[in-house]
Design goal:
Blueprint (H helix, E strand, L loop, with lengths): L2 E5 L10 H10 L4 E4 L8 H6 L6 E12 L2 E8 L6 H12 L1 H14 L6 H8 L6 H10 L6 H4 L20 H10 L3 E4 L13 H9 L4 E5 L5 H14 L2 E4 L19 H10 L6 E2 L5
Parallel strand pairs: 1-2, 2-3, 5-6, 6-7
Antiparallel strand pairs: 3-4, 3-8, 4-5
Helix pairs in contact: 5-6
Length: about 280
């Protein structure tokens, strides 16, 4: 089995629609794909409706969190999307995305970059507007060559010249909320130092004690030494180890299924989840 547990669609900051994502996942030879858009489940229905035969969909979301001033992302799998407490928190995070993005546009303008709010909205389309859309605007203007190059201290990285904070969930609260909705929690790309400061290992140990299920080890932003260190940490803490592409369509160079999760780990994730269940494809539109 080939299992990719971290992918994005146009419901947040990917470039594939949810329907295109599942069709492309099947074409890439995946058996299981997770749709984990940022702080939203809006793309799930479209993905389910288009799900090809032979492909299983894991529903989820990537939750924006912050601990001790460090931004981090929590992958939440197979939770009840209508559970009131988690739904309210996701909406709170999403509602803060627009003023935050507007603030980044204003800071860029003050730095002499002629990005406009209308440009960012056009790039975002129907998705939840966020930093990658502002980054794409910088690429369009020729300010930086790639989206990744916008995530530096010069521009949009945490603490960067055009960075603006947004509401982010305390990860201990995120774990409590996801568990309350019957879901499973995996810390996304915990060693991605190129994105900015990372969460210290003692805090990851505290998160594990609070109910964190796993950490994403095999990821494009982790070099071999980082993967080995994280794999050892997961073993010490009794955490599941996942691997995922973090696919964003043409917004990143990584391809679907470039990094995958072991079937036994996937089986354990599905065993622990009670809020929702994987959806087997029956041949979508």
């Amino acid at each position: 089995m080939r299992i990719d547990l971290h992918c994005h669609s146009t419901a947040s900051d990917g470039t594939d629609t949810p329907a295109e994502l599942v069709r492309n996942a099947a074409a890439a030879g995946l058996d299981v794909v997770a749709l984990t858009d940022h702080d939203t489940t809006r793309g799930h229905a479209e993905a389910v409706a288009a799900l090809p035969e032979g492909l299983t969909l894991v529903t989820g979301a990537e939750l924006s969190c912050r601990v001790d001033g460090v931004s981090m992302h929590m992958l939440a799998y197979l939770f009840d999307p209508e559970e009131p407490a988690l739904l309210a928190e996701r909406e709170l995070v999403r509602d803060d995305r627009v003023p935050r993005a507007q603030g980044m546009v204003a800071r860029l303008n003050a730095l002499g970059v002629p990005v406009t709010w209308e440009q960012v909205l056009r790039i975002a389309g129907d998705g939840s507007v966020g930093r990658p859309h502002v980054a794409s605007a910088l690429v369009e203007l020729g300010v930086v060559p790639t989206v990744s190059d916008a995530f530096t201290e010069e521009w949009l990285a945490d603490g960067g010249r055009a960075f603006v904070e947004k509401h982010e969930t305390d990860p201990f609260e995120a774990i409590r909320l996801v568990k309350g909705a019957g879901g499973v929690c995996v810390f996304a790309h915990p060693g991605a130092a190129k994105r900015g400061r990372t969460v210290p290992e003692p805090v990851i140990a505290e998160l594990a004690a609070a109910g964190l299920d796993g950490i994403e080890v095999d990821h494009m932003d982790h070099d071999e030494d980082t993967r080995a260190r994280l794999r050892g940490l997961a073993g010490e803490l009794g955490l599941l180890v996942t691997g995922s592409s973090d696919y964003h369509g043409s917004r990143k160079t990584v391809t679907l299924g470039e990094y995958t999760t072991h079937p036994e780990v996937y089986g354990e994730i599905t065993r622990r989840a009670t809020g929702a269940f994987p959806v087997p494809g029956t041949g979508g539109a």
